[in-house]
Amino acid sequence: MEEPATRESEMSLSDGASDDDLPLTLPTDGIYSGSVRKGCDPFAQTQRSKLQHRRARINQQINKEMRMRAGAENLFRATSNNKVRETVALELSFVNSNLQLLKEELEELNSNMEVYQTDSEAINVPMIPLGLKETKEVDFTLSVKDFICEHYGEDSSLYDKEIKELMELRQAMRTPSRNQAGLELLMEYYNQLYYLDQRFFPLHRNLGVHFHWYDSLTGVPSCQRTLAFEKGSVLFNIGALYTQIGARQDRSATAGIDKAIDAFQRAAGAFNYLKENFSNAPSLDMSCPSLCMLVRLMVAQVQECVFERITLTTQDTHFTSQLHLAQEAARVSDVYLLVQQSMTQPLMKDYVPFSWASMVQVKSEHFRALSHYYAAVALCDHTLSAEEEGNEEAEKAFLQFYVNVPAEPTLIQVLQDPEKRRKLGKAHLRRAVIRHEEAMRVHGLCKILRKMDILQDVLSLTHKRSLDKYSELDREDDFDETAEAPEIQSHTHHKPDIIPPNFSTVQVSDIFQRLGPLSVFCARARWGPVRVICLQRGEGGLGLTLRGDSPVLVAGVVPGGCAAEAGLREGDYIVAVDGQDCKWSKHSEVVHMLKNCNERGVELSVITLHSHDTQADRRALMLSHGSYKENTRQQRLLGAAKGQSSASLLNWNRKKKREGSGLTKRLGSTFSLSFGSLRDTEAMY
What we know:
By secondary structure, the chain is an alpha+beta fold. The chain has helices spanning 47-78, 82-110, 141-152, 160-173, 180-200, 227-247, 254-277, 288-313, 319-343, 346-349, 354-381, 392-399, 411-416, 418-445, 447-450, 453-473, 562-566, 587-595, 614-638, 643-649, 656-659, 661-671; strands at residues 211-214, 221-224, 278-279, 531-535, 544-547, 552-557, 572-577, 580-581, 602-608, 653-654, 683-684. It contains 22 helices and eleven strands. The strands form three sheets. Strands 4, 5, 6, 7, 8, 9 and 11 form a seven-stranded antiparallel sheet that branches. Strands 1-2 form a two-stranded antiparallel sheet. A two-stranded antiparallel ribbon has the order 3-10.
C-alpha cells in the first residue's frame, strides 16, 4: 500500500505578520480560466506550518503502524504454529505501544491552542480552535480520461487543461489561508464538486478515484471512493477554518468580538449542516456524537464572546446592569457544562483531547465564579439609583435573579437592608472563591494548560479579585456563619445563531463545461453514438422542426422530407453543424447556421438521448442506504484493532431525505421535459 503523502502546511502566517501579507490571489482578465485562488506557501517556516508538518509526519507513521498491525493480525489468525503466534503477538504488542505513543504525541499537537490565538496583548481566555483534516493528493487524470472516452465518446486528450485545473484547485484547497480568501477557496472547491458529481459519478458505478482523509484529532486514515466523503471532509474543514478565524480575533475591542461571534456561529452552522445532511461517517471526527459536541462547543464560545462584549459595553454601574452581567456569566457556565457532558459520552470520552475537556471544565467553573462575583458587586457596591429606587423593573429583576427564591429573609427585605445585602454578597463571594479555586485545580492537572501563560494570568487575576473583595467585606465581629448563596438563574439577551453555510456566495463555473449542458451531458444520462446526418435543402426546406437551445432539440421531422430521408429522428439533439460544436449554441445561432448552408448541404452531428435508467438508479440507492446496518455490523465484528480496514467498509452517504425518491424524480424530470416547458417556440425549417 502506498505511503500517505506528507501534507503541506494547512496555513501560513509569518511571526508578527497577518495572512493578508501573503499573496493569495492572482489577477483575472474577466475570462474564466479556472480558480484564481491559491493556497498558502507550504514551505513557509511559520509556527503553524511547522506544527502542520509534524501532524503530517505523525499521520504518516500512524498509517504505517496500522497497516503493520492489520498484517500481523491476519498472520496471527492464519497460522497454527505456536512459535509463530508467539512472535506475532510480541510484534503486535510493540506496534500497539508505538500507536499509543503516536496518539499521545498527536493529541499534544492538537491541544496546541496558543498557535491559533491572537497576537494582542489583551488578557482574554483562549478559545478552542480545530485543526483541519489532512488529505493525500488525488490524481484524477486516468479515471476522468477513461470516463470521457467511454461515456461521452470524446477525445480525452482535449481535456488535459481542465483535468490539470481541477487537480490544481484541489491541491490549493489543502493549504487554505486563515482568512476570507481561504474560506472562499474551500467553498469554490466544494461547489466545483457538484459539477464533478454530475459529470463523472453515476449512481450505478464508481469512478475508481480513492479519497484519503485523516481524522482531525487522531490521525487515523480513512479511504473511500464516494464523492460524498470528499464533500463532507471539505465541509468539515470549512467549519474548522472558521474556528481558527474566530480564535485569532482581538477580543479587546467590540469589533474583534463581533468578528469572533460571526466566525464561531458559522462554524457551528457548518458542523450542524454536516450532521444533518450526511450519514455513516467513516471517521470519528465526522460522526454524529462528535459533530453534536462541536456544535455545542462553538455555541458556548459564541456565548463567551457575548459576555465579553457586554462586559466591554456596560459602562454604567447600576444595580440591574451588574445583575445582568452575573446572569450572562451564569449562562456561559451552563453552556460549557453541556459541552462537558457531550465530551463525557461513551464514544467521545476517549476521543476528545484531555486538554479540551480540561479547558471546558475550567471555563465552566471560571464563569460560574464570575457570576457570583458580579452578584456580590451588585449587592454590595451598587445601591439602587434614583431612577431605580421604587422601580418595579429593578425589583422584578432581582426577584427573577435566583433559581429558587429564599423564604427568609425576603429579597425585598435584602434590598432595603444594607447589612443583609452585605451578608448575601459575602456568601456569593465565598462561592466565587470556591469556584475559582476549583478552576485553578483543574487547570493544574493538565500539563498542556499549565503551559498557557495567558490562561494562568486570567485565572489568577480573577481569583485574587474575588479574594480581595471578600476580605473587604469580612469583619472581625462577624461571627455569624456565612449563609449559602442561592443558585443564580442564567439568562442571556443574545442567543447564539447557528448560521448554515451559504455556498452561493462563491460563484463558480463548471470546469468541464465544454462537455455540454448538464441537462443532457451528465453521468446519469445515456445516449447513443454520435450520428452524422447530411442534409440538402429541398423545395419544402430541410423538413424539420427545432425547439429549445443548449442543445437544440429536433422536435419534429416531416415525413418524406429531406431530414427524414437522411435519417434524422424526432428527439435528436444537434451537437455540431458542419463540424462546429453547438452544444451550448442558442436556438437562433443554430438556425442561422442551417440557413447559411451552401449547395452541398449541411452536415449535422446528432445524438439520441435514451430513457434514464431509473430502475438501476433506484436499485443503487436502495443498496447504498441498505448497506448501513451491514457495514455497521462488520465494523463491530472487526473491532477497534482493525481501525483502518473497518473504516473503509463504511459507506458514506447523503441522508435518505436528500438522495431518496426526490433525486430520481429530479433526474427523471430533466430527461422528460415536456415540449411546452421549453423557452423557445418551435419553428419549422
